[in-house]
Structure formats: structure tokens, C-alpha cells
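Format notes (please read before filing issues)

Several people have asked whether sequences and C-alpha cells are stored in separate files. They are not. Every record keeps both together, in the order shown below: the sequence lines, then the C-alpha cell lines. Line labels are part of the format and must not be stripped during preprocessing.
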Amino acid sequence: MTTAAPRPGRAPHRGTLALATAGALVALAAFHSGRAAWIEAKAHLAQALIRRAWQQTSAGAGDVRPWPWADTRPVARLLVPGRAVDLVVLAGASGRTLAFGPGHVDGTARPGDPGNAVISGHRDTHFRFLRRLRPGDALDVERPGGGRRRFVVALTRVVDRRDLSVVADAGDTRLTLVTCYPFDALRPGGPLRFVVVARPES
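Then the structure lines:
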């Protein structure tokens, strides 16, 4: 009785497969990590160009686009002194605009003017700081021309994205900041929104 010889190359084949699988996983992780880094880098680079456009707008140059093909323009500056936040707000809150900075929601009051001024931003870039805001924190809104108005956080809450009271005119002057929730969600969007309501400093 003879014993069949083991098939040559079986063990190396398993090792090669394992190595290839590990390599594919590393490459996939690097891709996602690189993509996240690129998104954040793009957001910060855009803010530099947008800031330059804001300086020109504030100097009286009119509505200046941050780059020639931009379909938006800076309309305000949002500062949070206690959180080292200094952002330029863009006109409109489409997904294309929010990729470059926080956006002023069309149809709501201009930031700093009477009424409900609503500004939206991404939870993982420009509006990441919202999770740290607390009632009593100060927010400054600078308008074209240099006028600045201070607001104080009155409340934070989580609402359904279909809750239209967030953008409604409540008969007073307020600044409403909105982003997706929860902050650590794996996927953007979702049914919930985190809302910060700030009112003028008395």
C-alpha cells in the first residue's frame, strides 16, 4: 500500500492568498484614509480662497466669487471666540456649497439681520465644533463692510430633518446652526439634525 504524496504548492498557495488578502485590506484602508484626508484638505484650502474673496467683499468689491467657476459667494463670517472658530459663510446650502464651507440657507434672514438666519454645515468638517457648544457660549457674526453682531447660545437640540420649524421665522432675531447627527455616524445624512439656536446678546 502506498501513500499519496502531498500536492506540492498547497501551503504556499494558502500563504499567498492570505498575503494578497491582507494587502488588499491595507490598500482599502489606505484608500479610505486618503479619501478622508483629501476631503478635509479640500475644505481647508477652499476656506483660504473663500477668505480672500470675503476680504475683497468686505472692502467694497461687491459679491466676489472665490474662484471663477464658483456658483456661490461669501455672505458672512462666523466666529466663536471661545472655540478658536473662524469661518466664512457661503450663499446657499446645497451639497456642492457645503463641500467648501458652511452655507446660508436660502429664504432665511441674512446672518446678523433681524429674523431667523439659518446656517448649515457638515458635522465632520466645518461644523464639527457644534458638538462642543453649550448654552451661554458666544458667537459673532460679521457682515459685509465689517459690522459685527454677537449672539449667545440659548439651546441645543436634536430634531428630525423634516422639522421645518428649524428654518421658520419665529418672530424674533436668532442665529440657527444645523448639522447632521449623530456626530460619529458612519454615513452622512441620516434622519436627524443637531441644531444650535443663538440669540442676540442683550
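For reference, the curators noted about this record: The chain has one domain: 30-200. The beta strands are 74-80, 85-91, 103-104, 116-120, 138-142, 148-160, 174-181, 192-200.
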